[in-house]
Structures are given as C-alpha cells and as structure tokens.
Amino acid sequence: MPSSSAKAAESDRTTLGSGRKLGSGFVLPALICLLVAVTLYSVTIGRYDLSVADVTYILLDNVHPIVTPYWDPVQEVVVEQVRVPRILAAIIIGFGLSISGAALQGLFRNPLVDPGIIGVTSGAGFGGTLAILLGLQGYLLLTMAFLFGIGSVFLVKLLSTVRGRTSMLTLVLAGVVISAFFSAAISIAKLLADPFQKLPAITYWLMGSIASSNYLDVLLVAAAVIPSAVAIHLLRFQINILSLGEEKARALGARVVLVQWIVLVASALISAGVVATSGIIGWVGLVIPHVARALVGADHQRLLPVSGVLGAIYLLLVDNLARTVTTAEIPLGIITALIGVPVFAVILRRLHAKGGWSSD
Length: 360
Hints:
It is a single chain. The chain has 16 helices and two strands. It is mostly helical. The protein is globular.
C-alpha cells in the first residue's frame, strides 16, 4: 500500500508531468497481448520458414507430447534451441534496460540519464574486451564482464563519496569519469589486439548481439534482471517522491540515500548482466521510457511496467530486423542507435517546446 507521503507525491503534477494519459488499465494489457503476438511471430521468421501453428505444436509437445508429430526434427531444433532462447534473451534485455532507464531518469530528474551513466556499461565492456584479448571464452568472458561492470559501480561510489556523504551530481560526474576511463582502456585493448582475429571479435561483441544466445545466457541475464526489476518496482512510490527533488523527498519522510543506492545497484546489476551476455546495446534505456511516459504519464506505478513491456517489444522487433534485413547478421547496437538517435532528437525538441523536463 502506498504511504501518505507517496500519495502526496503522486498528486504533485508539476514535476511528475500531466499524470494519467491513456491509463495502464488499457495500455499495459494491450502491450502484453502485443508482446505475445510479436513473440509468436518472431519464432516463425528466419531462413527456415515455420508457421505459427508449427511453432505452437512444437512448443506444446513439451507440455503434452503429441503421439504422431508431423514436423521435421530440424524444425524442432530451430525452434527450441535457436530461436526461443534468442527471443527470451531479447525480451528480458529490453525489459531490464527500459525499466532501469525509467527508474534512473526519475531518480536523477534528468531525461538524459540511462543505465550507462553510472559507468557500468563501459566497465562491463572493458571486462569482456579484456577476456577476448586474453583468449578467454564462454563463462570466463561472462564472469569478467559482469565483475568489471559491478566493480565500476563501486569505483563510482568511492569517487563520489566524500566524508561519508554522496551527492547525485558528484555521482553522475564520477560515472562520466569512470566511463571515460574504461572507454580509453577498451581503445588500448583494441590497439593491442590481433587485427585478424581478436580485433574483429572485440569490435563485433562491443556492438551487441544475441545471435549465439543459449539457455544458460538467458538464465544468467534473467538472474540479473528479474530480481533487480522487482526491487525497482517495489520502490515505485519512493521514486515518485524523489522525482520531486531531494529536499521535498526528505520533507515527506523518504529514506533518500537508501532508495538512491538500491535503485543504482539494481540498475548496475541489470546493465552488467546485459553486457556480459550480449555486449553493449545502447539507447533502449534512454528512449523507451520517454515513449512510455507519453502513453501513461510520469507516475512510476504505471510507467515502470509499461516501460519494461514496451522495451521488450522494441528489442524483439529490433532483433527481427537484425536477422532478416540482410544475409549477414547486423549487431543490435547499430540498429538501436540508428533508431534511437532520431527518435530522441524529436523527444528533445518536444521537451524544449513544452518548457523542459519539469513541465512534461
């Protein structure tokens, strides 16, 4: 149940925006139905043609075995071992990046914030790059990317904490510093890499792809995303209060520092898990929360779930483009950047025309 201070915060429309627009009562169920439809369609497309009925029967066979299966064993392998884990990875990654982006934008009261702002993306990117440079593959690559991603968050905290106190502005600047450091480290690693084998592998991995995702990757990214997303959602009313500003939040009795760090650590876990399993996929956590906010308003009780489902649909569609537009696989990071940049430019112009973030 929301506290009285949360209800008070919810009523402040000046900062949170115009509040309910279409209402999650309609938008969220519609998006979930759309996600199911896009998921089924995504399993059918690719170089090996399958119908929705084929996919449905193949998947149902795992629950209630069909006596005389009519499909080819190859079709079963394509569906269950290739496409389903890839689609699950896209859904979980899109969901996690979007929900953490929405939470961080509310926490920092800044529309330009995404999960990369706390340095975890660059840190995890360097961990994976270093693993490839050292010839490490599989679990070791995932582990190094994850550890460097989480380690970057602790470096940001160390830099931004002075005499036991941490300001959000200092934390953002520390995140920029750590991101710049790890970006430079990635450049050095690429400079030292073998130009014929390791450099192409590093470059492709950094651009983001889920082409080789398996069930272990899905399990790893789900273990990072789902508990973190649940923690963020449980703090939705507190994030609403912090969206009003720290002074108002303290006056309303919010535990500001505790909430800030829980959201930051949860977002760091999501980003580290995503980068460890799929490389760097940008712009999802930056753009999708703005689209969700245009649909249901700025109240995080509605914004967080709508952002998550919308992000899952978006990344699923992007992955469909990546594997069908050309004969060669296009890295996801390229497509999300090509779509995200013009969309975000339009969003910025609309924000400016309306007087900025506070009057959205």
